[in-house]
Amino acid sequence: MAVSIDKVYQKVLAIANKEQRGYITPQEFNLFADHAQMDIFEQYFYDINQFGRTPGNDTAYSDMLTLLEEKISIFKNIKLLNYHSPYFQKPRELYRVGTIETGFGIVEQVTQKEYLNIKLSPLAKPTLKRAVYIDMPKGFRLYPTFTNNVHCHYIRRPEKVNWGYVVANDNALYDPSTSKDFQLHPSEENNLIIKVLALAGIAINDPTIYQVATAEDNKNIQQEKQ
Predict the structure, then answer these.
(1) Over 71-140, what HEC string results?
(2) From its phi and psi, is residue 105 left (phi > 0), alpha (psi between -120 and 50) or beta?
(3) How do the domains of the chain map onto residue ranges?
(4) Is the dihedral of CA 53, 58, 64, 67 positive or negative?
């Protein structure tokens, strides 16, 4: 599932160019598009947290959570981690960690302070079947020490989008061979257009486009939270 980068760009140009308001270059669009994709993607996690904390969820909220989980599921991944003593390397595209798992089961995440406390306890001291890990900038540190067969379940980042093109008669023509579509759920197409337009309105100094796009974005947010 994906959203066509060319389809979004053409719709954005059609709206921005109405009444000769301005032109958005491919370079500008690619910057706006990538920003818009990450903005929508990051909002998923805030929304899940909000809807999940709402007491007495009814069918509407349950459906919203299901939809959000469906949108995020596109980015779920599992990877066998490489070990470089004393750390397991994090996946390059890692956005959020789900679980770390060894052949003995799921590993519990702890802070450095928590580990210092539990390692001194005969009852809480980490074992192969009750291992723990610390998420450090250099990688994952597991206790007791493992060197292989460690998997990470995680949410990856969306890949950077790109509207590729070739120049013909001083015009930029879409080149699908060098393009990268949005990786978001197809239902996000309108949201992407709105967010790109809001950024474009600032770039071409057209407050009308920005105001209309922002108002539409706010309306969509309110409808989702009703």
Answers:
(1) HHHCCEEEEECCEECCEECCCCCEEEEEEEEECCEEEEECCHHHHHHHCCCCCCCCECCECEEEEECCEE
(2) left
(3) 5-74+160-225, 76-156
(4) positive
Report pLDDT for 57: 54
Residue 180 DSSP one-character state: B
On whether the CB atoms of residues 8 and 182 are closer than 8 A, the answer is: yes
Whether 165 and 172 have beta carbons less than 8 Å apart is answered as yes
Residue 129 CA to residue 37 CA, distance in Å, equals: 40
List per-block mean pLDDT (blocks of 10 residues) for the chain, which spans 226 residues: 92 76 85 96 91 60 79 96 97 97 97 92 90 97 96 97 95 96 95 90 58 53 48
DSSP 148: S
Q: What is the pLDDT of residue 201?
A: 74
DSSP H or E segment with residue 174: strand 171-174
pTM: 0.81
The token duo for 6 is: 């060319």
Q: Which of 136, 108, 138 is nearest to 124 (CA)?
A: 108
**pLDDT at residue 226 in the model:** 47
* Angle at the Cα of 66 from the Cα atoms of 64 and 68, rounded to 5 degrees: 70
